[in-house]
Amino acid sequence: MAFRHGSRVTEAPTSLMTPVVATATLPVVFGTAPVNLAKSPHINQIVVAYSFGEAQEALGYSDDWKNYTLCEAMDAAFRLFNVAPVIFVNVLDPEKHNEAVKLEVPVENKKAVITTKGILLETLKVKKNEADAAALIVDEDYVVSFDDDGQVVIVPLVEATKLFVEGTRIAPEKVTADDIIGGSDVNTGKVKGLELLNSVFPKTGMVPGLVVAPKYAKNPMVAAVMKAKASVVNTYFRAASLSDIDTTEADVYTKAIEWKNKNNYTGTNEFPGWPLIGLGDKVYHYSTQLAFRIAKTVAENGDYPHVSPSNQPLQMTKLLNEAGDEIDLGPDQAELLNSQGITTALNFMGGWKCWGNRTGAYPGSTDVKDVFIPVRLTHNWIANTIILTTWSKVDAPITRRLIDSILDTMNMWFNGLQSRGVLVGGRVVFKKENNPTPDLINGKIRFNYYVAEPTPAEDIENILEFDPMYYNNLFE
Prior knowledge:
12 helices; single chain; Phage tail sheath protein; Tail_sheath_structural; three-stranded antiparallel sheet
């Protein structure tokens, strides 16, 4: 040791950690997008978007939501609820989902408009005559672009009354449930579809909170995989799956309950919704609006997920089934759906509201952490935050200092959550009986966490009674 003479200061690491708080309800949306309109197309890749413009640049945009389901989510997230960020995964692959086109297009007002949607510009071959061996040269014989409706507009720079066009269009109708489910290529290792859920955290540093797949989540096979993937993300994290009850088969509310149970939409981390939601001419899947209603509610409450989305506004003017029939739903019908673990929408007081607190597990399960949506979301969030916070201590020496560091950090965090009303209470303890000496020697330590989230005031009973004693006031 070097010789010292005097007073000096050295700094030691702070024993109290700062909790690494997980993103509470980050939406991850799987579906299809008009990538032929995108500036930088993304196919089976993670797209992080903080604005409509960012999403449109990476995915393109079209009002044809039946074919391009991610556009529905883009509209709901950034135009209706104004929440961000959102993770998008497009599974429409132009190399796989395509169709050849061959058209004769008239030139009118010095331009030829191809009304067929989904054209890939790089595949276009334009000729003046069908029999011509050589095609016209782009930017020399003609210029081409998309209009606001996604149609190809060709402006010929040579004399022509009609043009003969060949090329390829993307074919969203060829996308199947298997494309959404995805998988991993054993030869290349490339991951597709829902398998990409495990890529979100490594690539973005954000933990998935909600798994959404508009249109496809009404397919029982897709919903089952969504539920399974959401329950175990990257081995350690937990998310929730938002599914839709098919309004083609369950076109009235009485059929929705049977359909839910028959198709096993009964997961503890699954939130089934019914029916479709209409806003003017636009039609949204219930899961889409529920996802961003949850995200909005969380954002409005300090990024804490303890407040239920139920009785919070939805952006809508009507309820619909797949056939386009309007559905009238009163409090009694909505209550019946809720009693069977189905969320819906209700226009009863103060406009259209999300209505329902229960997960798909209800009424089959009565465990409070599994049957209330806000409790399930908060439980997931706490579990994810515990993992993120304590991960930095993995492989540290098992000493009293390590144990106290984790206990002090997490207990202070729980105290803060309790003071904010996020928890009724919470604590973490290190029990001797749960940490036998052989386990400690083998590098294993266990902490017990106890939490109580506030349940939503789902049923407020006000008891009104006539009290004749007040007649005594007449004699005072």
